[in-house]
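To whoever is on call:

I kicked off a structure prediction for a single chain this morning and the downstream step that reads the tokens threw a length-mismatch warning. I double-checked the sequence; it's 200 residues and nothing unusual in it as far as I can see. Pasting both halves so you can look.
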Amino acid sequence: MKFCPSCKSQIADYSLKKFCPHCGLLLGHPAGKGLGIVAIGGFAIAFLFFGVLGILALFTPSSADIAQRHREEVKAEAQKPVVAIVKKPFVLPEPTPTVMRTTPEPSRSLDLGGIGRLNCGGSIPVMLGTTKDAVDEVQHSLNARDREGLREMVMRGRAFIVPSDTRAKLIDRGFFSARVRVMEGASAGQAGWIPSEYIK
């Protein structure tokens, strides 16, 4: 029987082991104590290192797995509904002519002889026809945006223009139109026909 110089354990003579099975000492080494532990510690560290690498390799996705996952994400993204935001270009609105009403305004508080203001919407000048037929012709030309026709009516004396909010006296009223006398400005004293809703 042999004895381990480190732990004093018995080792059989026929044993071919170079290390003590109890403490790990390298048997027959002249340096003696501790070398076996270092040798076994080195093997343990190497085993631990390669074991960790193996475990990481098991849980790390392969390039094929990454490519498959990417294809699935692209497919899922392609199946989502597409929402398109369409921006309309900003266009300033053109002044539109006032369309003649088919029914008179229900809340007219201005009586014959009353003084009101002429206004066809905002600061747009008001065009008056000199006759009942002329006011219809003015409205048709405004609706058709026929500037040449309006200019011709003014040149022939069938219509005249006053600024918005000009004071006027109501002197006659039809169902759709009213006759007024302009009270101020360059056309003061002149009478003309307008749609009924233009005097307020």
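Update from on-call: the warning came from a stale cache, not from the record. Cleared it. Sanity check on the structure: The chain has a mean pLDDT of 75.
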